[in-house]
Write a structure and sequence with these properties.
The chain is α+β, with helices and mostly antiparallel strands. The protein is built from 3 helices and 8 strands. It has one domain.
Length: 151
């Protein structure tokens, strides 16, 4: 699906995932969002999820429909930070590219202890909707695999 407008326009919780390398250890690259002046280095999909979850909790959006819990059965909820200030504009965000691939991730809902939203592969301007964080990881990983094989 081709995009009609920029993929992060007016969206507070949009993140950019720039992937430079991938091997059996995982991926390496950076995560960007409008509330950080620099990219946040990552070495795995797990780190991407943790960074994004922290951002969403700080923003209070999208809200979780279930609280996090631990092995002892305790439930954890999060409070929105008072004031989140944008320090990076959309144009600068979209200029942050990875060697293997660049993706905008827009999580629209956090339901059923997972994410639902859409991901755009910027190099091909293709957007796909995902129904879970696992599905998102598989979508991105399939693109990176194709790029590594030169397809």
């Amino acid at each position: 699906m081709k995009n009609q407008m920029p993929v992060c326009t007016g969206i507070s919780n949009c993140i950019i995932l720039s992937i430079d390398e991938k091997d059996w250890h995982g991926i390496r690259g950076r995560v960007y969002h409008a509330y950080s002046e620099e990219g946040i280095p990552i070495g795995s999909f797990e780190q991407v999820i943790r960074i994004a979850e922290e951002l969403f909790n700080d923003l209070g959006y999208p809200q979780m429909t279930t609280n996090d819990r631990d092995f002892s059965g305790r439930s954890h909820s999060y409070r929105k930070k008072e004031e989140m200030v944008r320090v990076m504009d959309e144009k600068t965000l979209l200029e942050q590219r990875g060697d293997l691939g660049t993706f905008t991730i827009r999580v629209q809902h956090r339901q059923h202890s997972s994410w639902q939203g859409k991901v755009t592969w910027l190099e091909k301007d293709e957007t796909v909707y995902f129904r879970s964080a696992l599905e998102l990881i598989k979508l991105i990983d399939s693109v990176i695999e194709k790029n590594e094989l030169g397809e």
